[in-house]
Amino acid sequence: MDKITAEIKKVIKVLDDRMEIPNYQRPYRWTEDNVRLLLEDITNSWKEGKSSYRIGSVILNNDNKDSQLNIVDGQQRITTILLVLKSLDSEVGSGLRNSLLYKHQDSLNSIIRNKNFIDSWVQENIGNDIRDFEKYILEYCEFVEIKVSDLSEAFQMFDSQNGRGKELEAYNLLKAYHIRAMESNTFEEKIACDKTWEGAARYQSNKDSDQVSDLLRQLVNEQLYRTRLWSRKETALEFDKKQIKEFKGITVNKNHPIDFPYQNKELLQVVMQNYFKSLGVAVNGVKSRFKQYSPENISPFALLNQNIVNGKDFFEYTETYVEIYKRLFNSEYEDMKEFKKFIQKNCKYSGSHRDGDQYLFELYKSLIMLMFDKFGEDGVNKYHKTLYLLVYRLRLEKEQVRYASVADYPIQNQVFNIIENAQTYSDLIILEKMANKKVVCKKDVDFIIKYFMEQKVHLTSGDEKKVNSTKYSFA
């Protein structure tokens, strides 16, 4: 196959291709509104007598040099067209319909819901013209079918075709990359990693609620990526595909020999982890970060700033920190109640919805995550107030808290690097000295000023018109 080929093909021809849904694909999640819009567009084109209707693009990848094609983009549209043809009692597409495997429960739920909707819609809107409507879909509707032999090229094509130019989330590229690195793992292990990943990407904090959040995006983009850079004393801006190499490491299996000495550290990490796993028992002397117990999906050997090993190890790394994030910051968990009360009171004050305040909250959470990583629950209980003073002094010192200033702030005071390199609490005394330095207030945020005064931090006014020193009784 050429590297990239593109062809306009009628639906009936596209459905002749031997396609499959790769493990890295997200579930089929089109809503009834998505389906209705497609059906209405096709119907209007049919009734207006138009000679063709362009459904959209399908991007297919063949990296195994056989005739089986991975669907990189177009799964939602192809699945929906197959459901429509099924509702029309069409034999076309039956082979593909029977061969495509949907491995997520979300996909199966959406397929059942949308099939019922399509049945009702066809009965109400098509009536006795089913065969004519079927013919129009098969012979007049068309896709732009793009075949790409290189997967990275396929994802770049996806970016330009999907969501009106909206880029594919970088963390989704990570999932594809690391599943491909699991060539020596079983199919069941790949599916387990995929399900865990998708569960974090569509997280419901309350199982009785329909509210879904992308916890994985939050964690990778903020608490993992930016913490790793700040710990190395580097400015941490937004995570995107240009920085994806931060989460790529070495692949350890028989097809990828360790060639260079610089990889020895990663290899040693794998050897030790596998050794402890082979014991089949808890490792004596490894203390849990939580006081009471450690959940099974939190690896006692994971480190936030660890070297990345591709494949299953990477998924275990992200699963560990997803679980830690939930237990630190989500109220549904019983862990660390007093700390969560502190966050609710001191980080979610009146006005904390502003962009600048949100930047500070993310910075604070990242520091808490790193402190927990190094010193566990005890460390957070000892130092969460100190870290709060270090972060939220920016809210008082700057008239506007901008993203760039927050990105640079940890480089100026090296707070992440101090925590990362600390071996005992005595190494953290410098944080207390930094937190209690005088604050020159240029912004009047009443709650934060009063909290700093309660903590005996010396405050002065940098602008009497904006921060009235007599109001707070400080010079």
Protein described:
The structure is a single chain. The chain is α/β, with parallel strands linked by helices. It folds into three domains: 164 residues; 140 residues, no CATH class; 135 residues, no CATH class. The chain is 52% helix and 8% strand. The strands form two sheets. Strands 1-5-3-4-2 form a five-stranded mixed β-sheet, with helices on both faces. β6, α18 and β7 form a beta-alpha-beta unit. α3 crosses α5, α10 crosses α12 and α14 crosses α17. The radius of gyration is 27 Å and the shape is elongated. About 2% of the residues have low confidence.
**Major sheet description:** 5 strands, mixed
Strand arrangement, major sheet: 1-5-3-4-2
Report how far the terminal alpha carbons are from each other.
76 Å
- For the record, the count of structural domains works out to 3
Question: What percent of residues adopt helix (DSSP H or I)?
Answer: 40-55%
Q: Report the uncertain regions.
A: 159-167
Give the overall pLDDT as a whole number: 85
State the assembly state of the protein chains: single chain
Task: Give the helix tally.
Answer: 19
Strand content: 5-15%
Round the Cα radius of gyration to an integer and report it: 27 Å
Order of helices and strands: EHEHEEHHHHEHHHHHHHHHHHEHEH
Instruction: Name the structural class.
Output: alpha/beta
Number of extended strands: 7
Shape: elongated
